[in-house]
Amino acid sequence: MPQIRPTIRQLAPETVNRIAAGEVIERPASVVKELVENAIDAGAREIEVVTAGGGLSLIRVSDDGHGMGPEDLALAIQRHATSKLDESDLFDIRHLGFRGEALPSIGSIAELSIASRLSGSGDGYEITVERGAEQGLRPAAINRGTRVEVRALFSATPARLKFLKSERAEAMAVTEIVKRLAMAHPGIGFALTNGERTGLRLPPVPATPQGLLERLGRIMGPDFMADALAVRGERDGVTVRGFAGLPTLNRPDQSQQYLFVNGRPVKDRLMIGALRGAYGDLVPRGRHPLVAVFVDIDPRDVDVNVHPTKAEVRFRDSGRVRGVMIGAIAAALAEAGHRASAHGGAATIDTLVGSLARQGMTGTAAAGPGGVVGGAGPADRAYRPQHHALRGNGIGFAEAMQAPFETATGLLHDVVGAPSADTRAAVHEPEPDLLDRPLGAARAQLHETYIVAQTRGSVIIVDQHAAHERLVYERMKAMLANGGVTRQGLLIPVIVEVGDDARDAIAENADELAELGLVVEPFGPKAVAVREVPALLGKADVAGLVRDLAAEILEADGARGQGRVLKDRLEAVASRMACHGSVRAGRRLAPEEMNALLREMEGVPYSGQCNHGRPTYVELKLSDIERLFGRK
User: Fold this and answer.
1) What is the pTM of this model?
2) Pick from 146, 301, 382, 498: most CB atoms within 10 A?
3) Is it true that 13-201 and 468-581 share their CATH fold?
4) Secondary structure class of 183 (helix, strand, coil)
5) Which residues contact 577 (CB under 8 A, 6 or more apart)?
6) Which CATH class is domain 13-201?
7) CA distance 345 to 343
């Protein structure tokens, strides 16, 4: 069958606009993004967004910006008509919207009306486009600024509707877009109404770090606001600012990671990778920190035109941006020292509330995350004599609060009255001057695993193994940075059976292990001989350490598909070693040992979380404990 050569023809303007709409307008949230960006570019100080039906029935964006006169209003609905782009330099982009595609694209697939009044003018005008058909200009009653209404979205392209999610999901996407733009522009007030419910109301805040944190806290929540670390870095024309959450404040997804470039919300792989590099081993695998990071850079050094929705960017010098980001965030985390998330204390109080409730304390009722309001039931009356044990001798926490740390069930007063010999706390009198230290004075050791410390206004519970593991790890990292870990020779080499594959893997990486202070060599077909160990590890289980390291090396080789990559993972191996060399759970510590551990934690960065990213301690505010027992 002969091939018929197709005839090239010019597409109709309506078809061109609908094709453009398919690139720019993916869902209702895309429309909201374009319209709000236009309002920001117009110098608005207040922006109101109203939607109905998830944005499919109605999207209305009103602002108090500069507005438009009738000539500009007529041009605004034409393709590639914009006031935001200097044709002499297409890479010098200093506005959020610049292509001039959004409004004509929206008008081609929906009912679009734009009413605007130019600043200083007494007259307002309105123009309407219904599915690509322009209706012409007419006078309109409107105050200064612009009001854009979009109705029956995708009515001209109904096939697109099947690709949308539920109205609730689309409304959530709209909310997320408004949140991101509000975070990038804290000096602008935002209001969002979904259906009949006001979903967001953010007053403008000062253009200061504290003002930005206030805006972030309204969106990301009080936990972030309490645990946010100020981030600031600048080098070679790249400025990084914002706030990064403590490593112990993390989530199972990246939904609370907000990234911006020149005031534009983006989802950039380079920047996400920089976040991972900055947090490193401080966050558990599969968890993600909470951050809001703003990068400011010369517009000519970043291409924001690589994606139709402008959600991705390309940097001219990506290494420079990555370096400044990692440096700024890492410095903030290091400066935080031993701080752990304040959320841990609140979560512990919630756990205690649940524990008391399960033990039959029906006379108390939870009063939110901070404490309990008392009742007068039988369990409450039985409980009150033990409640008074909190008075005197500091706060007597180690004795009066023994029960919540035990696994036995039953009423609290029964457990407190007769603790078992295995779980009784060792109590020590505090030195008064230590009560003013950040982690306080050691008061007791519970289950030979948890150190209970007291400050002037709180109780601190430390996981002794997790805390010491981090301290040993940080010492090893410091030694690595200074040329290698100090070794300690063994009088008699330790022979460890590991198998053929593990023996070969260890032998291949012997030089890197030696840099970590572990000197090993093959010993027969299936074993290795350990002749030196890191001095920091003390009386570690050498055989267990070597077997764990062999598994670590083999896993790394299998994951990467090649051997000899341990040099890139020295810190991960050092973490494994630190775990073996730290104070183990189940070891009774003397008072001076516990206080020494607390003092070292106060002076070592990142000691608020262990090598696996979990908190090493929780702090319970005395006021929360008093509310827990109905004292306030």
Assistant:
1) 0.74
2) 146
3) no
4) helix
5) 472, 476, 516, 517, 518, 534, 537, 540, 545, 549
6) alpha beta
7) 5
